[in-house]
């Protein structure tokens, strides 16, 4: 019944789509009106070129990589994604002697490609509206729990059927807060090898200074190859595996981009919150973002200082630092954007008029008030929960004991080795003091564990006492324990001073925070289901799309600059000249590799020269979010023109509210990628397997 309301509604809606660049659309149900809008802007293909279950379509060249997206660019399984998406793998292969982070890596033959155990690449086989099956047997007289249990049961059945005997993986995801359910079925490949990556001075050029910023000059790409067994099926790593033969791969356009060009993005955006109410936005902008930003500022200051002082520490903390810094900077941009667009007042105004409209409709009357009071109840729990996770639960030593204790006997040593490879006690200890201090200052004493109570008397002393008492600070002792007897060692680790602190926080979360937090969130989500339907009736002219949830989407827009603030206008493309403008051997983030300097000086650009320079990156108004990293940026003919890797700082509120004037995704121009492979890396042989147009 729910489904009929929504589907009928979406159909009537698709007749009157207004032209808009906002939105992340489900490719299988893109709709004729949406397609017509795309076509009027420069899309020259059909719906079946995008998504088709019977024939190869572009979706078959798009790869789900967990937190990122990739695309296949050859018939031999060659896959492109971002350098920052492959970063963890590149780092795992790096040591001070073979520092692929610093120097880059290029397999000069297939034998040299590096396996990455645990790293997988998934292709969507198909997606399907299963709303009716999910709601089968759900009765209006059921309690929420009974209805949820029934849906769970139905979902398990749908998944079991979809994966029966074919080795596929499937998920059922809720869209529009439970108004729709879609089944997604994937084939997942488990042998994915690193083929090449530029040095970080290119792949991460500008580092965290330029991250989330335009103008940008990052060559944020790396290459992997997907391997399959002889039958082209997924298999664990084996040297007998052969390159995967994809159903479809991307042709690459070397024609380039210009202001106003149509582009679209195919990928796996992670999470957006476009329909949340003013209370939720206020909490993010006024409370949680500022608190989390302050905690991360403290952690980053500490990491940066130690990393700058010692090259070995720099490598150890490279990936950790990047991930802490990334959200830290994004939240700052998001808060600014929310304030600039006055989102809270806008949403309040919307809620007021919605409430007036709803007053005589029993289905929707009082909804916004009820949401408001639930948010009032939720806030203290949400804040304590967020704070724990961003403070004491980030202390590495505290988490480690539990990881060891829960590792199987034969994995325990590997877990320990992996931890110590990237651990630096002075950083962890200093961070422990800083975040614990903030915790006792900012979190309601009602939510303290006994440890936090002790800590509140003298933080420094408390942290020292834990680090002194813990065996986990001594790698040799830990290895010896595991060597001697893993099950005895497990007891020691579970009983360790550090482990117990972490376990106590988990217990507190489970006892005092999460039950209430989850109940309230469940109620909120249920009300949002009604609110969504209400909004669709209330605003029939508004284009609705489901919030991102790591499922395959299409976003489209056009290449274009923007005016971030008064007196400043951004162009939409950047070039190698800008790299040289930033070049500064004294600054780590801007130290251009000598080889690139030489190429620049000699203007040795070969076939990649465009008007005497080399294009590097461009911006466009595609609606993207985290998870879209590595997504193909595609022209109207379905050819690859770039690789998405970021958003502009002024756009980062687009997870909450999209604004065409300010929202721009950032892509590395495919021609820069090709230039680097060819001219910089001398791996031009890789271009031979690509389809360049
Ligand atoms: N901001 C981009 C994204 O959200 C790039 C991140 C790369 N990491 C970094 N710390 N520079 O993933
Ligand atoms: N860099 C992001 C990612 O890893 C994409 C940037 C964004 O959030 O739009 O997915």
Explain the overall architecture.
There is one protein chain. Helix 15 crosses helix 22. This protein is 47% helix and 15% strand. By secondary structure, the chain is an alpha+beta fold. The longest helix has 42 residues, at 497-538. Residues 11-16 have low confidence and may be disordered. Strands 1, 2, 3, 4, 5, 9, 10 and 11 form an eight-stranded antiparallel beta sheet that branches. A seven-stranded antiparallel beta sheet has the order 13-12-18-19-20-17-16. It binds arginine (ARG) and glutamic acid. Arginine binds next to helix 12 and strand 19. Residues 68, 624-629, 645-647 line the site of glutamic acid.
Features:
693 residues, binds glutamic acid, seven-stranded antiparallel beta sheet, globular, alpha+beta, 25 helices, 20 strands
User: Which ligands are bound?
Assistant: arginine, glutamic acid
Category from helices, strands and their pairing: alpha+beta
Helix content, binned percent: 40-55%
Largest sheet, if any? 8 strands, antiparallel
Please report the total strand number as a whole number.
20
Approximate shape: globular
Q: What is the residue-mean pLDDT, rounded to a whole number?
A: 95
Please report the distance between the alpha carbons of the first and last residues.
Answer: 49 Å
Low-confidence stretches: 11-16
Instruction: Return Rg in Å.
Output: 26 Å
Number of helix segments?
Answer: 25
- Assess the beta-strand content as a share of residues: 5-15%
